[in-house]
Design a protein that fits this description.
Helix content is 34%, strand content 16%. By secondary structure, the protein is of the alpha+beta class. It has one domain (32-232). A 4-stranded antiparallel beta sheet has the order 2-1-3-4. A hairpin with an 8-residue loop joins strand 1 and strand 2. The longest helix is centred in the first third of the chain and has 44 residues, at 19-62. The protein is elongated, with a radius of gyration of 28 Å.
Length: 233
């Protein structure tokens, strides 16, 4: 009886038919974790790129808008600003949920009128999106009291020149992970872009086309979403 048991144990020890399956079962959790982590990081990089491109797109368009006239400088209307925001939503596509999870801030950086030396200030600022995120680089009116270096990270501020304006765009967006955040990467994606206004622009104010039926002002004190699809339906 003992010899039979010994023989069976020896045959079992020498049996390697299930070795590959056991190794795969042991390694599978690690492979799955690595694969899902790679998928998550790739998706994060793609969304970051989309937000960066969107910031550049909005800043570029903001530098070009305005009524074109041979008789006077270009005027900017509140409706033009709304068009910028709606265009950004179209470019972002619906899957991002741009204004549900994010916020776009457009600032007009200019030189304080009649200041010597030329001092910087934020003449106007318009915002869109439900995310509660005030600008990291200043709010409307900053600089009128002096000592405002410009907009951007410390030591890398952009500035405007006399009779010109710089469109400074900041986007903050709450990334929605596919599987989670195993590395503790910041949940908020931030991006900025700047463009100098292309043509001569009326810098005195933002206008309304019809004072009796004013267009909506994208007030930075409001945190609401909007839907371009609903607007045109």
């Amino acid at each position: 009886m003992t010899r039979v048991r010994t023989a069976r144990i020896r045959r079992l020890l020498g049996n390697t038919s299930g070795l590959a399956a056991i190794e795969f079962a042991l390694a599978f959790p690690l492979l799955l974790s690595v694969g899902l982590t790679g998928l998550e990081l790739t998706n994060r990089a793609v969304v970051q790129m989309q937000i960066n491109q969107l910031a550049v797109h909005v800043a570029d368009n903001a530098s070009r808008i305005g009524d074109q006239s041979q008789l006077e400088d270009r005027r900017i209307y509140e409706g033009d600003i709304q068009d910028l925001f709606y265009g950004a939503e179209v470019q972002a596509s619906t899957h991002l949920g741009l204004y549900d999870r994010g916020r776009i801030i457009i600032s007009s950086l200019e030189v304080v009128p009649d200041s010597d030396p030329e001092e910087q200030y934020i003449h106007w600022q318009r915002c869109m999106g439900a995310k509660v995120h005030p600008s990291s680089f200043g709010v409307e009116g900053d600089g009128l009291g002096g000592a405002f270096p410009g907009m951007g990270p410390a030591g890398e501020e952009v500035i405007a020149f006399a009779d010109e304006a710089v469109m400074f765009v900041e986007i903050a967006y709450d990334y929605d992970p596919l599987i989670g955040n195993p590395f503790g990467i910041p949940a908020t994606i931030r991006s900025t872009a700047t463009f100098t206004v292309r043509d001569d622009r009326d810098l005195s104010q933002l206008y309304q086309r019809d004072a009796g039926d004013p267009e909506t002002v994208a007030d930075c004190g409001a945190y609401t979403s909007t839907s371009f699809s609903e607007l045109v339906s």
